[in-house]
Amino acid sequence: MPDPSVPAAPPNPAKVASAGGLPTPPKPKRRLLRRLFLAFVVVGALFALWLVAVWPPPIWYRWFWPRQTAFMAMRAGQSDSLAHHVQRRREATDGELPRKYLPVELSRIAPGMPQAVLIAEDHRFFEHGGIDFQAIREALGYRRADFDWDDERDRAELRRVLGKAWSRRERIRGASTLTQQLAKNLYLSPSRNPLRKVKEAVTAYRIEMAMDKRRILELYLNVVEFGPEIWGVEAASQTYFGRSASRLTAEQAAALAGTLPFPLRSNPGFRPGRMRWRQQLVLRRMRGEAIQIPTDAEAIDAKEPPADSTPDTR
Questions:
Q1: What is the domain-level CATH number for residue 263?
Q2: Domain range enclosing 62
């Protein structure tokens, strides 16, 4: 029998909780883990929202032309430097160049133009769904015919190419598809931030889901840059050759395709040496020769001939 003179010990909180009393407050460690989990969920949700947050949505361009793309807006912010570009500086007014942008339907573009662009930029355009994994594999230098995670040799080859991925980054950028380039032109910037490339890939996939290949090609040909404030094949054709895009010859189409992907460095009206070199490669491919056309900056710079300041007027 307990001694009444000795005070009773306080009740054990755990026993009180198990007996139906008040719940035990969470431990500090559990509170921290819960907060970290909630923060992770919020950050993940914001990142997912950022990946798909483009306006207007890609399906809008199934029927409408862009009034101004993100790439055009970026160039407008560089108006001071573009106004001093030797090719069009005489046309500048108050430090700005007039924009040349005349979108036309694909049926009003000579058939040789889309053929030349696909040869130069994305010859597997009609085979991929926005991302050309074959081109990425080639850019990485992956030498195995396929990949199976259960195959040790495939895993070893993957480790090898991933270890060299940074040194081959220019080749990987050159593996961008025409759809990815359209996504960049419509919505994004030319930044080389890896997160921007992830958003570009997601947006390219959404573009492929929203419209057919013909419309994607039509949009690309009308918004791609061909010189300082010269956008699309119609404006480029009138500027460089004095004719509409429907009357372009195979040589002229190959010349425009040859200005890509660096139209401010070389085009039919400015230092056309590199453009002419790529034009001849495109023409040879159009005639059926099995030759490789470099698409990444390193390969182009390595093989680029001396610049020629004489405009190409063909």
A1: 1.10.3810.10
A2: 57-132+175-303
